[in-house]
């Protein structure tokens, strides 16, 4: 299984048919009033694999502007891709919701990384002081 695509968003609602309603997709800037600031977003990912692949390792991290790790997670999940319309030997996909919350301690480019079975994506997030505050 692999991560086909990943994007930060404000909200995602995943449906049983594999589709999703995503609000604020492509969010790449977070404005904050001051530091430290809690950043609370959702990472929408589309995972692709064969129906016979069942157990997977999902790992992720958030890196600071200096590329040191700020937060990380790892989980094992058991989910094959179930789609009755996929011909034998083909891959199928589904959308997954991954909540992301971390405390940003400075302005700059942060990096959200997610991987399944070692195959992943990196999603940048620029954290800035809100110019309208103060």
Walkthrough of the structure:
A five-stranded mixed β-sheet has the order 4-10-9-6-7, with no helix packed on it. A three-stranded antiparallel β-sheet has the order 1-5-8, with no helix packed on it. A two-stranded antiparallel ribbon has the order 2-3. The model has no long low-confidence stretch (mean pLDDT 88). The protein has 134 residues and is mostly beta strands. The protein has a single domain, classed as Immunoglobulin-like (Sandwich). 0% of the residues lie in helices and 63% in strands.
Order of helices and strands: EEEEEEEEEE
Strand content: over 45%
Named CATH architecture: Sandwich
Q: Assign the CATH class.
A: Mainly Beta
**Total strand segments:** 10
Runs in which pLDDT lies below 50 for 5 or more consecutive residues are none
What do we call the CATH topology? Immunoglobulin-like
Mean of residue pLDDT values: 88
- Pairing-aware structural class of the strands and helices? mainly beta
The oligomerization state is single chain
Q: Rough shape?
A: elongated
Q: Please describe the biggest sheet, giving its number of strands, its sense, and whether it closes into a barrel.
A: 5 strands, mixed
Domain tally: 1
Task: List the strand order in the largest sheet.
Answer: 4-10-9-6-7
User: What's the number of helices?
Assistant: 0
Helix content: under 10%
End-to-end separation: 47 Å
